[in-house]
Amino acid sequence: MQRRRRAAESDLDLTGRLMEDMDPDLLHFLRTKVNSFVKWDLVRFFHENPHTTDTAENVARYAGRNVETIREELAELAEDGVLERNKLGDMVIYSLSSSPEVRKLLSQFVEASADREFRVKAIYHIVREAR
Amino acid sequence: MERVKTGIPGLDEMLSGGFLPQTANLVEGAPGTGKTTLGMQFIHHGIAACGEPGLILTFEQFPQQYYNDAARFGWDFRQMEEEGKLRVIMTSPEVTSADLEQVGGRIESLVKETGAKRILVDSLSHFERLDDDPARLRQITYAFINGLKREGLTAVLTRESHALLGEADQQEDKFAFLVDSYILLRYVEIESAVRKAILILKMRGSNHDKGIYQVEVTSRGIEVRSPFEGQEGIMSGSPRRMVDSFVEAFVRH
């Protein structure tokens, strides 16, 4: 029991150490918005295709994912303000938030993701959150 | 009459100066014949030479693909996007069609934001999956084309042809009635070499060149070269020398 608690504490320490030199805004973005690999894929997709406005079915097709897998994640990203969710006729469509702040943060996140060290930290964080 | 120049050497001459403004112009051809390049060149020329911003509406390829393809010809589409003169929009036919039917939609906003005058739709073939009923499909496509015209855009719409060589089947004519001009790009086999041919099948409200010309994709983009001469059956994909046909018809019998 004690050993397990010590392991958990050590795990937290490691996470803390890994995250402490991360940009606070990016860390917040990662913790609160991009807390799954599917979301990571989706935000990268919308960053690379900033003018895309489409249904969950089509976004799934473009992103090479199953629509059932991404439907909930798209909705959460919209709730969190990363995406915009609108009705178009009888369709629900998603597009990247028009907020310059969100776009800037997303841009920083995607650029930072090009760095292996950042990716490792981000992956570690997501895996930990998923437990 | 005012013309919207494509900037493609030889094509503007075939079109009697260029497309008519606010028209829908279909470019059909097999994969690799240069449909998308023709469309990109039309967009690039508008921005670089005529001060007319443009939109690229893609239903299949990612914007990155257009940046890369354009760069091969020395066209910096990414820079043009950064300058607000171009928008490459990846979307679907169903969303675009619905969007064009509402006031203040995405396309309308982008046209206002960029001042776009030209659009490349790549490709119209994707509309075919929207409805199995030909009449309904025609209605949807007609509404889409009218929506583009309403926004004041001159459009190049590409369309895949399934026939690599030879004449396309009759099914492929279903969009031809909806557009203002209809350009065909075809592979033709002449003396054991495959070349590309261009032909303007129709141009509503304007005269146009009826000849079949050779076309080449160079490092500068598409260039229309000399007409095919002394041959017939070019669009069948396997032309014959006219003298052979004459001999067959009149001498051998």
Protein described:
The complex is a heterodimer of chains A (131) and B (253). Chain A has 131 residues and is mostly helical. Chain A has 7 helices and 3 strands. Chain A has a 3-stranded antiparallel beta sheet with strand order 1-3-2. In chain A, a hairpin with a 2-residue loop joins strand 2 and strand 3. Chain A is globular, with a radius of gyration of 16 Å. Chain A starts with a helix and ends with a helix. The relative contact order of chain A is 0.16. The model of chain A has no long low-confidence stretch (mean pLDDT 85). Chain B has a single domain, classed as Rossmann fold (3-Layer(aba) Sandwich), CATH 3.40.50.300. In chain B, the strands form 2 sheets. A 9-stranded mixed beta sheet of chain B has the order 3-2-4-5-1-6-7-8-9, with helices on both faces. A two-stranded antiparallel ribbon of chain B has the order 10-11. Chain B is globular and about 65 Å long. The interface between A and B is medium-sized, with 14 and 17 residues.
Shape of chain B: globular
List how many beta strands of chain B DSSP finds: 11
Note the run of SSEs of chain B as H and E.
HEHEHHEHHEHEEEEEEEH
Counting helices, strands and paired strands, the structural category of chain A is: mainly alpha
Radius of gyration of chain A: 16 Å
CATH topology of chain A, which one? Arc Repressor Mutant, subunit A
- The CATH class designation of chain A is Mainly Alpha
Summarize the structure.
The complex is a heterodimer of chains A (131) and B (253). Chain A is mostly helical.
Features:
heterodimer; A: 131 residues; mainly alpha; Arc Repressor Mutant, subunit A; three-stranded antiparallel sheet; 7 helices; 3 strands; B: 253 residues; alpha/beta; Rossmann fold; nine-stranded mixed sheet; two-stranded antiparallel sheet; 8 helices; 11 strands; 31% helix; globular
